[in-house]
Amino acid sequence: MLRLSWMTSPEPLHDIAHLGSVELLTPQLEKSLWYFRDLLGMEVVQRTAAAAWLRGYGDYAASTLKLSQAPSPGVGGIAWRATSPAALERRAAALQEVGLGIGWTNGDFGRGRSFRFRDPDGHHMEIYFEEQRYEAAEGLRSALKNQPQKYTGRGVGVRRTDHLALLASDVATNRRFAQELLGFQLREQVVFDDGKNEIGSWMSPNAIHHQLAYVADVKGGHGRLHHFSLWVDNREDVLRAADILVENGVFIEAGPSKHNNSQGFYLYSYEPGGNRVEIYSGSYLVLAPDWRPVTWNERERGTGTYWGAALPESFIQYGTPDIAGEAQTPAPDLSIFY
Amino acid sequence: MLRLSWMTSPEPLHDIAHLGSVELLTPQLEKSLWYFRDLLGMEVVQRTAAAAWLRGYGDYAASTLKLSQAPSPGVGGIAWRATSPAALERRAAALQEVGLGIGWTNGDFGRGRSFRFRDPDGHHMEIYFEEQRYEAAEGLRSALKNQPQKYTGRGVGVRRTDHLALLASDVATNRRFAQELLGFQLREQVVFDDGKNEIGSWMSPNAIHHQLAYVADVKGGHGRLHHFSLWVDNREDVLRAADILVENGVFIEAGPSKHNNSQGFYLYSYEPGGNRVEIYSGSYLVLAPDWRPVTWNERERGTGTYWGAALPESFIQYGTPDIAGEAQTPAPDLSIFY
Amino acid sequence: MLRLSWMTSPEPLHDIAHLGSVELLTPQLEKSLWYFRDLLGMEVVQRTAAAAWLRGYGDYAASTLKLSQAPSPGVGGIAWRATSPAALERRAAALQEVGLGIGWTNGDFGRGRSFRFRDPDGHHMEIYFEEQRYEAAEGLRSALKNQPQKYTGRGVGVRRTDHLALLASDVATNRRFAQELLGFQLREQVVFDDGKNEIGSWMSPNAIHHQLAYVADVKGGHGRLHHFSLWVDNREDVLRAADILVENGVFIEAGPSKHNNSQGFYLYSYEPGGNRVEIYSGSYLVLAPDWRPVTWNERERGTGTYWGAALPESFIQYGTPDIAGEAQTPAPDLSIFY
Amino acid sequence: MLRLSWMTSPEPLHDIAHLGSVELLTPQLEKSLWYFRDLLGMEVVQRTAAAAWLRGYGDYAASTLKLSQAPSPGVGGIAWRATSPAALERRAAALQEVGLGIGWTNGDFGRGRSFRFRDPDGHHMEIYFEEQRYEAAEGLRSALKNQPQKYTGRGVGVRRTDHLALLASDVATNRRFAQELLGFQLREQVVFDDGKNEIGSWMSPNAIHHQLAYVADVKGGHGRLHHFSLWVDNREDVLRAADILVENGVFIEAGPSKHNNSQGFYLYSYEPGGNRVEIYSGSYLVLAPDWRPVTWNERERGTGTYWGAALPESFIQYGTPDIAGEAQTPAPDLSIFY
Hints:
The structure is a homotetramer.
Chain A: E1 16-26, H1 29-39, E2 43-47, E3 51-55, E4 65-69, E5 74-82, H2 85-97, E6 101-105, E7 114-118, E8 124-128, E9 160-168, H3 171-180, E10 185-192, E11 197-204, E12 212-216, E13 225-231, H4 235-247, E14 252-258, E15 264-270, E16 276-282, E17 294-296, H5 298-301, H6 314-317
Parallel strand pairs in A: 1-4, 5-8, 9-12, 10-17, 13-16
Antiparallel strand pairs in A: 1-5, 2-3, 3-4, 6-7, 7-8, 9-13, 10-11, 11-12, 14-15, 15-16
Protein name (chains A, B, C, D): Catechol 2,3-dioxygenase
GO molecular function (chains A, B, C, D): dioxygenase activity
Domain VOC (chains A, B, C, D): 18-130, 160-282
């Protein structure tokens, strides 16, 4: 009754440890701050006139989210932490070699020397190893010695950054970049038209199901953001988050509900600057060194949700910055990408 | 207000991917099966007269738990999956060199060539790379393409193996073995008597907080088990599990409640064979390549729980197989280890 | 800052204690049984060739759900328990007087002398006082002395009946009937067209938000069912139920999500016989003796859900038995009734 | 297999609708306010120098909790809402007749004409009918038309008052008083010594399992409080509350765990004034007009919890105001009553 298959695998690359920090651009810095600090319960650790650095209570780093005043919403620098100083050098050399490198910087708040580069679609990324560990001031110290910061009970109380979904005009190229240059493991894919049209790919450098996703930019843009995702420990926390968002007049685009792809329990809203933010739980860990990517075709994909909830058209059409024009290519009958 | 510290780290070893399978010995095989299959909701994938192989619905491997008929309860073979064939060879050579190696086998059900060895305390372990991926028969196929098996809704519905806690007469030696020979990262420790008495250490080869713990065997035994732990996705699942266990006459030793160490949400019961089993959720992932172990002394440790619940004396005194005699060394004022 | 208003109220009627039992008609008795027993986890307490009597683990009565083989799905007898023998006589006399009475019977399984009647729309109802208290056999006895039956851990594990929603061609008339003849308290209403078009009304004889709802039969039928609702204690149980239903091939029409009206956390599926069944939690208790009904107009009503989830057209168009023909009156822009 | 028993019942009294408001005395008014407002998330609706009036977000009345500065902690006035003006007069006359009446007042904040009286143990109570309905100011208006106030997301976010447990030197007398004079239905009892020693009784005027409990005052005091209990909708909310309390240095006496009696999911802490407060969910509704009280003897009672958690000695010995002296009568082997 049990059908068996044997796994084989080459030696995996292990140079990137995790997603370190994401910079969101916002034309409404103060309102965006209200969303992340007062509603989602994040802490502000540093402020300037044009930017704010924040963190979730469970993040061990000094800061994991940067909000920057900008004319349009979107994603700024995306920072990945290397597994060692040597790993940082190896990745910098490899990126330099393929022509995606930009160069070294001293690092943004909380991070040491960083190598900046671009992904093929034009998103700005960097790799670093040295990181400031967060040490809480008196009022924010946790009663738990293994928790970097007090759980304050304010608003949603997101624990940590989970992942990032980027729009890309050519998903396949960017996916291969992340696999080969960054060493990410491919976890799931949505591929339409008999395997010819790669709609989305979900990848990770660690056990978290995905820390980076590329999904098709149906408007043919470049360097755009689909969403940024923050973790809470239980599905009940996501339900409670929905109440808090609605009570505060925040528009909910979709959820809470459960994706089929990733099995993630999702809640999508737009922060006041316009960026799509997900509050997220569930999903599953991947520990297999030779994980076989799960691929979904049109029929298997269905609505992109598990229980049948429909995702709105905006979920495919809208990204930040928002750009004019209809979908370039006749969008396949993709109800959604995840 | 923000105090900073810079992290540094050598290149980490990355040869073990995850805990693969645990063998529990039971003098009551049929009753133990009832516990794991009917109450915890695991599936039986293979049977012989003297053994049964089981799995959680979310495990990707063919089997993750083996129950073996034996005169006394306890832990049998503990199998770790390597990250690659080369990693397997490297670990085998290293273990052979320090004299802990036993030799190669063809592997138990579902696994290929395996290298057997002992830890310093005498527990039987093995490393392997080749693994049978589970492929569900018709009635057990999930509606989710990325879920190896249907969630049946029977009983607790544990998702997967989480970790194993072993008793050891000399925690420090066994902890160093796991760090140096297996490459596990040390996550937390309980150390009493001004740093001189290592009561427990929690380690992992991946992002899961701990997949292996060594805690002091207060009776001076060898090769004994403290508990085997199975994961559910939400704390609510643990609460529901407690109802199911009590309704079926299973003795609950402690919980549901929350540890301070590991932040795990725990529920301990004894399966009918006598082994302590934990149903577990919560805790936190560790992604830092240079994680600084969190160390708890007597005062910080308190009762070992976060909200103040007491753990019973049995939690320190009882392991499997049970052995006669009082605590060898005057047990320190340790209320519990986790 | 606090605006105040004084409440006044006449003496409320208190003759009906609660919804006692609901009979569902099904053309697929065995498959319906599979749904309620194997998936929802109810117990069968009595069987004949053409009917089965079931119960939730928390129901104190012998049976609260009857499944009857019939050519078409729909709702059969709806039984209400009186608060006393005298209350039963009072209600029977009042119903007789207005011409809705049918007559006395000896009562169906588990109930004593019952007075049968019709509501204005033609649904069959009855009132009774004498009721068989459930006493569990050995294998179904709970470890909790105050729980009538063991929580078995099978499937969803619904606790008890919550409420019933009936379609009615004239909501206002049937609502007044329930208020005046049965003494139910009106809790919420959806009224469109500047108060002229009563789309739905939610009522109860006790603290449960509603045990009876009348919603507009857009096809102009009579005696039809919108849905029957079963309670679970936590929202997490509803999420888990959705997984169980999908894993077993049951179509989910809507949810899990949260209604604005009633604040109920809902999950709608069709049992194999065709009847819409809700798995339900949340909502709120009403204890005010002079509760002021909450009324929603088109704009306030929105999608009928709290977080923005859309309800499908079938939620308005489909009831059991299903009947031909389009909506009689041009259905107002009602996305849904609750 | 089904054993049956027939229920009979006299006409039940129905003059009290629900627990309306509880006054807690505190020697630390500002700190108590911090606990209820900042940690538990209640709103302050009125302030004077020596008192504050609060409410849960789901309470329909203007205020349900009054905090009053006093030399010692304890319970002040306990207000019950009548089901009608006539019911109020009936209860006042009955209480006057048995000599427990004190007299009429104009009512405290938010309530109209009130009849004050004492229970046999000396607790101060009152009955009223007229009540100010809460109408939220702009910033506190809910997006839900049927929710009196916004769910703010601050701290625990208790929804409403649930119940009150009073200490009494003679439980049986006070229990009969509540049954006969107030018309409460007896739900559960703990009776030791072969039925001769009534340790605790749980009662209610509505479907909530209990709104009033009397438990033995083992120190022989009078008019003392065991605990005041506030409701949250899900067990997960109680777990989250425990984190919030510990992170803010509040001592947790017991829980979160599940009682056997009432099936309540409990969390007990002391507010800074010294009164024991419970955060509560779960339990079960009672709708039977002829409910048969569930009685527990010593053996059935066990530890008073369902999963085996022990309750501390303080749970029996401590009430407010705290009084000197040991237990008067040799306390029976009662682990707890709550």
